[in-house]
């Protein structure tokens, strides 16, 4: 069995719509092996409702890899455990796609470089930010033009920490995209180009004092705020409570605030987010995460005597 560990991701970081992503220290594990008949072992509450037949996303993506490599492997035994909540804007579908690609590739001897897996993942997800971050780790600046994906990876370093406020309701990416206009005013496009450029420069140079301004957005957050009660107030007030910058994580509904890892009064920001959302009737769990410098990683291959969950539990406890 091949077992792959994949980090969660946050996309956009405010103005970098469909082009900026950052890996986070929340993980999913995918196990895969050849079998006489296809079987699924799905562990954890995040797996509720996931198909356990050949319509399963992991199975479907694995078959794409085998087909491209000229390998026939119609029956698989697939295991998955994930701490990444579904449809919350933390890249759960991207982590599944990346996990499936990486596991299937490793299972047949790794004929494809990660760059080629990135091309496949971007074409499946239709944007490269989440899949790029989960595949390569760190911070990804990328584009996908419908035929080709390119990226540059930035080192996330160890000076940033992220507070994610995860509402207790799901928000599908399809619904979140449906509220976006088909065209935007030129001034909003220029606004985002400038802020996205400033954000990348701030992350490259460690000018975290610029994040409060650089993470502002005019293309998607104003339209999506109506879907997340309290979001507008959180975006406006988080800086006064210690956040370096704050944004909607991907399509939402999770909100992500960046803070210096060495900052002392982190509880103040956490209380602000929780109380503001609660005032609007939204219950949310708070979780502190770090940027993950490591992307998809193969943990084990044939010959390892541990079961899938023994490997996962050992990795979590480590």
> H/E element string?
EEEHEHHHEEEHHHHHEEHEEH
Classified by CATH, the class of the largest domain is Alpha Beta
Integer tally of domains: 2
- CATH-derived topology of the largest domain: Ribosomal Protein S5, domain 2
Distance from first to last alpha carbon: 21 Å
- The portion of residues forming beta strands comes to 15-25%
* Overall 3D form: globular
Write the CATH architecture name of the largest domain.
Answer: 2-Layer Sandwich
Count of helical regions: 11
The biggest beta sheet reads: 7 strands, mixed
Task: Count the E strands.
Answer: 11
> Average pLDDT across residues?
94
Low-confidence stretches: none
Explain how this protein is built.
With 318 residues, the protein is of the alpha+beta class. It folds into two domains: 2-155 and 292-317, 2-Layer Sandwich (Ribosomal Protein S5, domain 2), CATH 3.30.230; 160-289, 2-Layer Sandwich (Alpha-Beta Plaits), CATH 3.30.70.890. It is 36% helix and 24% strand. It has helices at 57-69, 92-107, 114-125, 129-136, 173-178, 186-205, 211-214, 221-224, 231-237, 266-279, 308-317, and strands at residues 2-11, 20-34, 39-43, 76-82, 139-144, 149-154, 160-167, 245-248, 255-260, 284-289, 297-300. Strands 1, 2, 3, 4, 5, 6 and 11 form a seven-stranded mixed sheet that branches. Strands 8-9-7-10 form a four-stranded antiparallel sheet. A hairpin with a 4-residue loop joins β5 (139-144) and β6 (149-154). The longest helix is centred in the middle third of the chain and has 20 residues, at 186-205. 48% of the residues are buried.
């Amino acid at each position: 069995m091949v077992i792959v560990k994949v980090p969660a991701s946050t996309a956009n970081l405010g103005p970098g719509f469909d082009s900026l992503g950052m890996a986070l220290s929340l993980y999913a594990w995918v196990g895969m092996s050849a079998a006489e008949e296809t079987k699924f072992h799905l562990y954890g509450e995040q797996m509720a409702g996931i198909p356990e037949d050949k319509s399963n996303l992991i199975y479907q993506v694995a078959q794409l890899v085998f087909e491209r490599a000229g390998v026939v492997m119609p029956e698989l035994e697939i295991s998955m455990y994930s701490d990444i909540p579904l449809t919350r804007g933390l890249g759960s579908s991207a982590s599944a796609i990346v996990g499936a690609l990486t596991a299937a590739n490793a299972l047949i001897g790794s004929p494809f470089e990660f760059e080629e897996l990135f091309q496949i993942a971007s074409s499946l997800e239709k944007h490269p930010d989440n899949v790029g971050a989960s595949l390569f780790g760190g911070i990804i600046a990328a584009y996908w033009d419908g035929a080709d994906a390119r990226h540059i990876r930035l080192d996330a370093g160890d000076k940033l920490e992220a507070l994610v406020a995860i509402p207790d309701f799901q928000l599908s990416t399809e619904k979140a995209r449906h509220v976006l206009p088909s065209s935007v005013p030129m001034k909003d496009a220029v606004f985002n180009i400038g802020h996205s450029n400033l954000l990348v420069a701030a992350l490259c140079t460690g000018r975290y004092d610029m994040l409060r301004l650089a993470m502002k957005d005019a293309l998607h957050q104003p339209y999506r705020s109506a879907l997340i009660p309290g979001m507008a107030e959180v975006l406006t007030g988080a800086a006064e409570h210690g956040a370096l910058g704050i944004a909607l994580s991907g399509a939402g509904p999770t909100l992500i605030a960046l803070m210096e890892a060495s900052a002392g009064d982190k509880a103040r920001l956490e209380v602000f987010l929780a109380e503001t959302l609660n005032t609007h009737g939204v219950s949310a769990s708070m979780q502190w995460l770090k940027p993950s410098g490591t992307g998809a990683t193969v943990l084990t291959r044939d010959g390892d005597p541990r079961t899938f969950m023994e490997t996962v539990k050992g990795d979590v406890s480590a």
